[in-house]
Amino acid sequence: MGTLHVLDHPLIQHKLTHIRDKNTGTKDFRELVNEIAMLMAFEITRNLPVAETTIETPVKTAKAKVLAGKKIGLIPILRAGLGMVDGMVRLIPAAKVGHVGLYRDPKTLEPVEYYIKLPSDISERELIVIDPMLATGGSAADAIHSLKKRGAKQIRLMCIVGAPEGVKKIQEEHPDVDIYLAALDEGLNEEAYIVPGLGDAGDRLFGTK
């Protein structure tokens, strides 16, 4: 079964407190989400393989490390996942970015796919699916299914706030996918919002209701 990682770095937790606060406005919310995404990307890439190379410093020839192995693909789930892309690309500028568009049917609460645009070589890339919230897990599970049926082999899921219900769904449907969260919250309310959560991440990112 995929491993759940809760990234409790003090800087991540400090910024998370501010995005939970209902008084944080759109501009600050957007900047903080990007900063959290960048900090989480630092943690999620900790074990990327490296190779040794030789360079010339201003002083002498030296051996140094460079990234090796498979390249990274970032797959935000539209629309809220877009709010995390810039922070991650700032840290991993060579990453390619694909998009998966899903919406939740208001009656069934099931995800509906409406847009897919991916790098042509996703089978050769380590993909990180990104979305601020992991609530029921339906959208993330469906997005991962979409990637797998198009040839993806290595996938990780990165969300800022998750609920146990969403974690359980991913682990049941995609036991090969590791999950990375900044916080694992209490659960879901009757409207499938994470409690205590931070509200609707998409609305708060883009100033909509």
UniProtKB/TrEMBL annotation:
Q: Which reactions fall under this protein's catalytic activity?
A: UMP + diphosphate = 5-phospho-alpha-D-ribose 1-diphosphate + uracil
Q: Which GO terms describe its molecular function?
A: GTP binding; magnesium ion binding; uracil phosphoribosyltransferase activity
Which stretches make up the Phosphoribosyltransferase domain? Answer: 6-208
Names of the cofactor(s): Mg(2+)
**Is Transferase found in the keyword set?**
yes
Name a biological process GO annotation: uracil salvage
What is the regulation of this protein's activity?
Allosterically activated by GTP.
> Which UniProt keyword terms apply here?
Allosteric enzyme, Glycosyltransferase, GTP-binding, Magnesium, Nucleotide-binding, Transferase
Q: Which InterPro entries does the entry link to?
A: PRTase-like (IPR029057), PRTase_dom (IPR000836), Upp_B (IPR034332), UPRT (IPR005765), UPRTase/APRTase (IPR050054)
Binding site residues for 5-phospho-alpha-D-ribose 1-diphosphate: R79, R104, D131, P132, M133, L134, A135, T136, G137, G138, S139, D200
Q: What does the record note about the cofactor?
A: Binds 1 Mg(2+) ion per subunit. The magnesium is bound as Mg-PRPP.
Q: What does this protein do?
A: Catalyzes the conversion of uracil and 5-phospho-alpha-D-ribose 1-diphosphate (PRPP) to UMP and diphosphate.
Classification via HAMAP family: Upp_B
The cross-references to NCBIfam families, in alphabetical order and at most eight, read: PRK00129.1 (NF001097), upp (TIGR01091)
- Its protein name is Uracil phosphoribosyltransferase
